[in-house]
Amino acid sequence: MRAALLTAPREVSIEDVADPAPGVGEVLVRLTAVGVCGSDVHFFHEGRIGSASAAYPMGLGHEPAGIVTAVGEGVSGLVEGALVAVEPGIPCGRCEPCGRAKPNLCPNVRFLAQPDTVGAFQECLVMPQENCLPAPAGVSAEACAVAEPLGVGLEALAISGIRAGETAAVFGCGPIGLSVIAALRSAGIQEIITSEPLEARRVFAARLGASHTIDSARENVIQAIRDVTDGRGVDVAFEAAGEQETLDHTIESAAIGGTAVIIGIPREKKMEIDLHTARRKELPLRQVRRSNLKTAAALELLAREDIPIEEMVTHRFPLGETATAMDLVRRYADGVIKAVVIPSDQ
Q1: Positive or negative, the Cα torsion across 233, 188, 196, 227?
Q2: Peptide linkage before 57 cis (omega within 30 of 0)
Q3: Residue 126 and residue 26 in contact, taking contact as beta carbons nearer than 8 Å
Q4: SS3 content of the chain, % helix, strand, coil (to 5)
Q5: β-strand partners of 237
Q6: How far is the CA of 208 from the CAs of 140, 193, 232, 307, 341, in angstroms?
């Protein structure tokens, strides 16, 4: 089969690799849609993300969906031809975080597209049965491919502790920020203020349920939020861009006694936090680590509610153009919101 392998910063080679075969309890999936994530772009462009360095050659892609083509011994409930979303994390199930229902913090996790684990920008993938989640009726392959980032939004919602009647701000309306908006609306949050410099993303944020959208390239973001909230700020502020400016806005926009939720992954190893402002507000700083296996919950939400989340997919690329896809996302070019790679259409 063919696989797109990162061989150096900004260099991707399409290679022939061994065809995988499912073992006991495993499933072979022919991949038909794989989302391009910001973490893929960091590895592609900078050769690292935070303190994690790429190990060449390296497979990227951890938001896959596809068709079951074979099952191993002991697999039940999945049949050939079934459309599935693939949960990308395989936790050990034995460590302390796993025992506390926090497998996203498992130090032994195998997660797709990390330096020691295969990626999903390839034609086929073998995963444990429990990681292969059948698509509910009416949920498409592209919706399955964005279920993992939607799961991150659901995890951010859970961590935030936000309650009905409270207010939220979301800084950054890329796929993760948009997923947070969708999650907040599904929980009945009515006042959702968003900040984003790109018009196409602001428009889609409003479509998903944002009550106010701020053009951060032209407006004073904090003053705009103060105007909307009568000077109070919001109950929960979500940082979803991984930039110093959005982190600053998150701390500053939260109300006294509010909460800040940090989701974005920065390029830098370290960022500054205005601890004086956070301390004066007694502001909890909560951070999100992946989706905590909430891809299944995301699929259930998509089946239950009419959320046009798959429409954030604006660009599609064949496997041979994986590098082009990641470069487009890196440059925020051509109105891109979400790009997907289509490894196999056969």
Answers
A1: negative
A2: yes
A3: yes
A4: 30, 30, 40
A5: 169, 260
A6: 18, 12, 25, 7, 24
Mark 10-42 as b/e (b = at least 16 C-beta within 10 Å): eebebeeeeebebeeebbbbbbbbbbbbbbbbb
Token pair for residue 74?
């002991």
Residue type, 239: E
Q: CA dihedral in degrees (43, 47, 50, 51; nearest 10)?
A: 120
| 59 contacts 122 by C-beta, under 8 angstroms | yes
3-state SS, residue 25: coil
Q: How far apart are CA 3 and CA 120, in angstroms?
A: 8
pTM flag (> 0.90)? yes
pLDDT tens by residue, 290-334: 999 999 999 999 999 989 988 999 999 999 999 999 999 999 999
Residues 6+ apart with CB under 8 A from 223: none
Write the pLDDT tens digit of every residue in 2-59. 999 999 999 999 999 999 999 999 999 999 999 999 999 999 999 998 888 999 999 9
The closest alpha carbon to 170, from 231, 211, 226, 227, belongs to: 211
Residue 346 above 70 pLDDT?
A: no
Tokens of 191: 């006042």
Distance (Å, whole) CA 322 – CA 31:
14
* Percent residues over pLDDT 70 in the chain: 99
DSSP conformation class of 80: T
Strand ranges inside the chain, DSSP E: 2-8, 11-16, 26-35, 48-49, 52-53, 58-59, 64-71, 83-86, 89-90, 110-111, 124-128, 132-134, 167-171, 191-196, 212-215, 234-239, 254-262, 285-287, 313-318, 338-342
Share of the chain above pLDDT 90, in %: 96
- Return the structure tokens found at 140: 């498409």
Give the chain's domains with CATH numbers: 2-134+308-342 (3.90.180.10), 150-287 (3.40.50.720)
